Amino acid sequence: MYSIRNITDDVVYVGVEDRRLHLFENIFPLDRGVTYNAYVIRDEKTALLDTADATVSRQFFENVAAALDGRALDYLIVNHMEPDHCALIAEALEKYPQATVVGNAKTFQMITQFFALTIPEERKLVVKEGDTLSLGKHQLSFVMAPMVHWPEVMFSYDATEGILFSADAFGVFGTNNGNIFADELDYKAQDFVEDARRYYTNIVGKYGMQVQNVLKKAAGIDIRMLCPLHGPIWREDLSFILKLYDQWSRYEAEEKAVAVFYNSIYGNTESVINAFTMKLAARGVKNIKAYDVSKTDVSVMIAECFRVTNLVFGATTYNNGLFPKMENLVADMKALSVQNKKISIIENGSWAPTAGKLLKAEFDTLKNCAYIGDTLTIKSASFSAEALDALADAVAASLQ
Ligand code: FEO
What we know:
By secondary structure, the chain is an alpha/beta fold. Helices cover 33% and strands 22% of the residues.
């Protein structure tokens, strides 16, 4: 059975909800599922904007057929070539043999990489920045968005209705459950914003400068509706998601707050972290978040790294190096360009504590980070209570 909704008189949502997938990109846990959004425009000519993941093929093609309602497909517009959106291109071209494929030069290069598919020249429309395509009433133009977050990414702008089809940009984890518009959801709720932040920071976080570039382009366009490839469509309060994207892509924290990431093998480091968070709270610090790296998915911690100003690490020395889960977090912070942070370190080591030095060697490579307080060293379960107080004083003062 098809499941489609008109988003305007001529534009139909044909995306699919996926509640089965456990790991997005086979790495990011999905607590609330994910959507693969796609859109059909019905005008004198018809256009399908993007396809979907291979796993939802049946539902997707039922939706497209229902939206086309017996009409042929004239254009398949490919805004993004990652397989959660492009996997069904070959099947779409089999089903709709007269469709012309619209993409930029890199799009077509990737199509040949992914598919044993030769598209005849007369069925290719290669576009570049600013090129336009008339569907009749609907005038589309194309905005290149390289490295948001793949090189071939482009946005399609429908000037007639003020709709920006924005590829992965402004995407969110989670299904919509029929409520395909953000204004039909509680988009200011904590779980929604957490899913938006975790999606952005882990998928696109590395490419802040490129996101800033497209936000500048978007500022010059009359956008009345944002149609991303994941999550809900924005037709009201667009500034809510635009502001978050602007903040995240400038690597500006949302909150003066502390997130603590620790590993603890026998509980001694954890015990000091618990004492430390109590001391922070006694100094007036609110909304402290502490995460055991052994139990928390790294994507959650990356999102927290973007959200707050202050990061505190509690790290044991392990095989003369860092604990593997801690090492993984730090590697991901570097990969995703975490920057502009105030960092404090508590290390543990029973005979040769080196975790603090190793962490600093990694954090020294991050942009615009400063250390708050001196590294506190725990030897097994022994440490200086005065030094812990001094570190709590320094962190609390840095939040003022
Ligand atoms: Fe949703 Fe970059 O794919």
